[in-house]
Here is the input.
Amino acid sequence: MAYVAVKGGQDAIESSVELLKLSRSDGSAVLEIDAIINRAKQLIDRIMCEAGFYAPEYAAIAFKQSEGSLEEAVFLMRAYRSTLSQTHTSLTIDCKNMRLSRRISSAFKDIPLGQILGASYDYTHRLLNFRLRDEDEGELRSFREQYFSSIGGEEVDMRAERVSDLLKKENLMVAYEPDDTEPMDITKNKLMFPASRSARLQTLFRADTGFVSGVSYAGLRGYGFMAHPTIGELRSGHVEVEIKYILDENESMVLGEIFFTEVESFVSSHKSSEQELDELEIDVGYGLAFGRAETKAIAMSILDCALNYPTPNSPPNDEEFVLLHGEALEMSGFISHLKLPHYVTYQSKLDNIRKTRKANETAEKKG
Amino acid sequence: MNENNDYNFAFLDEVSKREIRRAIIKAIAIPGYQVPFGSRELPIGRGWGTGGIQITLSIIGPNDVLKVIDQGSDDSVNAVSIKKFVHECTGVEITTDTEKADVIQSRHRIPEEKLTEGQVLVLQVPMPEPLRYVERSELKARKMHADSEYSAAWLLLYEQIMRYGKITMGAAYPVMVDDRYVMSPSPIPRYDTLKLDDADCLYLFGAGREKMIYAVPPHTRVVPLDFEDYKFEIEETEGRACSICGATGVFFDEIFDAESGERYFQCSDSGFCGKNAERNKSNATSNECK
Here is the structure.
């Protein structure tokens, strides 16, 4: 009989949970938290980004607990996050002060400090490296020692102005008034429409990477209004997080650093003018993500810009479509609820089908 | 008491619970109106009753007795999971007896036994917006509610009559609450819909994924949308009886026996069915004694 009608559902559930542990204990090697944090950092960054919760150790535990399921790991992090009370709000984090690891511009060749490639898979051939099957930790260590001695010990502290700041000076950018309204907090309020920009950016930051990339790709391919954007600047590196010092409001305390990737995409826009012809100018889309999630940050910047231009029948330009359907927990939760019994609701539907059939049969007989 | 000391009583922090209670109070003050709230993530899937659970966690006290059902059943996987979770983080007593419960959380059923004053039925809601099928934009749907502009909802019913000769809404049949707001009663069967009208208990509706809370306070007028010549109809129960307890005129689950190919019926409300079967048994024994 069906799994709703049987007594002893409790026992069946406990056995199911036990099987999970069995699955997690396959093989013979323990997955060390330290190894996950340091050697799977892109994954950890993605979990933290979609969870909206910067805590590498917890993310590693979540990853381990969920057998590497991203969706489950994000879920664990979110559920834990909602039990914590918010004690502080950081000062505004400004990526202008970023200690750069990578910084490129596709719009301008010559930018102050030049193009800094940093660590990127962009310049590799994706050939599976079979030597990693039996990797020698000693060799890795000597590689690191050699590397650091060749650069003279320390990494260089590189900081630079944003590329867009240069264009702003030339008046080529769409001018926006600085907006210091208190940002809306999407973890404490329901997202209402039209959404504020702060709500939009927070939602996109936490959104599922696949969803954000897919919808912005649709925009690039021609669904809706979106000319081919140009990456004005992509920068990644460490930014300090500060809070106000409790004893002196004018002082601040540094809590630590977070590794971000920030993107500004440039899109041509037009400015209606009183002269005969409209003028072209440059509008900017903003993208941000934890870690080196460059595709996500670029995709986010495209959608941020796309949402400034609502276009009929175009999902990438529709804020309700974009902002309501990329939430990792909501999409997986609602899809997976379909596995729950629907006996009552289905019974109700069946009743209608039978009644309309019966009505038709009677009508036929009469006819 | 609280068996899991890593977490606060009822899981959420006190500030969050207070925020949710405020949304509930507003919902009670404006029957049928959807109150947006900052839905929190829970250790249970969004779409698996998290709206209902957040309401339950926010209103439950250590001395309350809780019952959780899923499509009528106390033993369904998700009902078991939810009551285990609430019990672990509150230590409250759990029951399957509708009459003994102070708070009943339910997915898609209102219990057969009439709920009384002081009882709260918390319903889990997948789609709080009754206008979603006629207007997919939340912004526009909220404007339609504000203006009491419900012609599209009536039109949907009319179109069904034109096409199928009858109103073909299944569960989640839209209702008019207090002559003001059209509301989705959550996907309860039509059989349960009339229980919302002039009830003695409080009904609270929680949609966790969609971040809305709404309510039907006791003794509120709740009327299903229909037409003078095409009336609201409940599901067929005639000629059916429960194969376990013999009850008639209740809402049934339809069961197919794969071996015999037979079709038979069982009470959808498992708590009621168990009690009824027990009562029949003791009646039979006491008759024997006579």
